[in-house]
Here is the input.
Amino acid sequence: MSDPIAAFLAMLAAERGAASNTIAAYGRDLRSARAEIGDLLTADSVALARLAEAWSDLAPSSLARKASALRQFYGFLADEGLRSDDPSAALPRPRTRRPLPRLLGHGEIAALFARAEEDARAGEGEGARMLALIELLYGSGLRATELVSLPMAAVPRDAPFLMITGKGGQQRMVPISARAGAALARWLALRPGGGRWVFPSPRGGHLTRVRLFQLLRDLALRAGLDPEKVSPHVLRHAFATHLLEGGADLRVLQTLLGHADIATTQIYTHVDAARLVALVNSRHPLGSEAGRAAQNAAPEVDQAASQP
Here is the structure.
């Protein structure tokens, strides 16, 4: 095999359906390791152990990602019969703590939308586009990549949902609210004709993630918000958190967000801990006054029933 890294990345794309961003990140990580210790195909555990020192300045999350890429790479080599051993046990295993997402309160969301709606009422295409973008970020919880690369074919004419192709090529239906549908229709009426993308770029192709990030921060600044607090991902987090506050089921939220593993969605149980505590106190039999009274009365009932 002339280039095992290229073969591994091709396998990720063909067999696992990995996203292009994931494949690019793994490629960078593997080439970085090769630059430090030489040929990865023949590297032994001593060589891999040296990476801990070479990567000592990295954040734990970055170190964990690099080590994960190498472990998967050596698993691939073993599966292909290119290695009879697996030296990846020598790689560092940093403890990572998943940070809680930054959040926007209901008042901040309202201010952001008020500004966007005012811009859209001016009748200009850019204002209508911005309103449609944030309606889909906050109203449907789309990822930034899913949003900017949304094809026209994903928007049914008479159905209140979008067909989204997410990470790993997985498809899901995402409902859109009446107001999001109205904002999207307003933008499509002003959108430059032709082309494949819902949000085309004047330079060809579709709007980029970087440009979306810039547009959103500019909107936040004009809405009187701290632009450092606002990003496409923060609006996706707000969508999830505010749905939970409204009583949404965690499994339903997992489906809407396109998470392959419920463990990824469970981070929101920490964000919404206050609601969960209130839920237990109000719904559990021992959490209410009626429940406690019933529990206290139960021994007396049992005692009376046992008397002849």
In short: Residues 26 and 68 are 9 Å apart (CA to CA). The mean pLDDT is 81. The first strand starts at residue 161 and ends at 165. The radius of gyration is 26 Å.
